[in-house]
Model the fold of this input.
Amino acid sequence: MLLFVSPVLAADMLNPKHPDRNVQPGVPQGKVTPGVFAESTIYPGTRRDYSVYVPAQYDAQKPACLMVFMDGGGYAKVDGAFRVPVVFDNLIHQGAMPVTVAVFVSPGTIPATKPGAKDRSNRSFEYDSLGDRYARFLVEDFLPVATKGLNISTDPRQRAVCGISSGGICAFTAAWERPDQFGKVLSHIGSFTNIRGGWAYPGLVRKTKASPKPIKVYMQDGKDDLNNLFGNWPLANEDLAAALRFAGYEHQFVMTDGGHSGAWGGDQLHKALRWLWSDQVK
Done:
């Protein structure tokens, strides 16, 4: 229930041939390096895969922007719904977004202790929980390892978080709790519902009207997204978007066709990134 699903042929109904979503002649390609992180002090006993994209234009003498993707494996696939390395290559080359390092991180798993048993996913606990624990994991635990040796900006306006479904609310929570670290949020079909209390966000956002947090938020949901015991995803996203508007946050909310799938968010990713990073390009 908490995992996102991709309907068969969903991407074929969209625009997979858009030039920003495909490798273009003459566009320098960044490098993606895989890794494994199993030394967490915030989530002890977990193991997770990750990878780091470094654009061809990266200059170690200049701090690069940063964008962290939860459920990173799906975002990193160059033939998937999002194709982030390809889209980054194209937009950075065009000057539509700054030179940005992308970190793709998977949710933690806890290794099985009995023969033949399956590892246990820590995804919902990490992603759906409110509070600063996951933000601390990123800032104190994981990113110092994943970005070791890279010159990464410490300006929160140049640091973004992104995720889909439970990863979408996780991205929002990380920026909400640590706006000093992450000033930009991109949420795809975010689970702002009652899985672990996420439907509290509209009320919390409205209470900050006198002093909004310095975060810029892009949200996408599909009009046929989930409606189940945890809540109604389109209504929950609309409610949060209305709260952001009321409290004066810089934000954009796009309601697309489709349901609980990354196909529609992936189709719009290049537009979302142009808007999200528009304040960091000349």
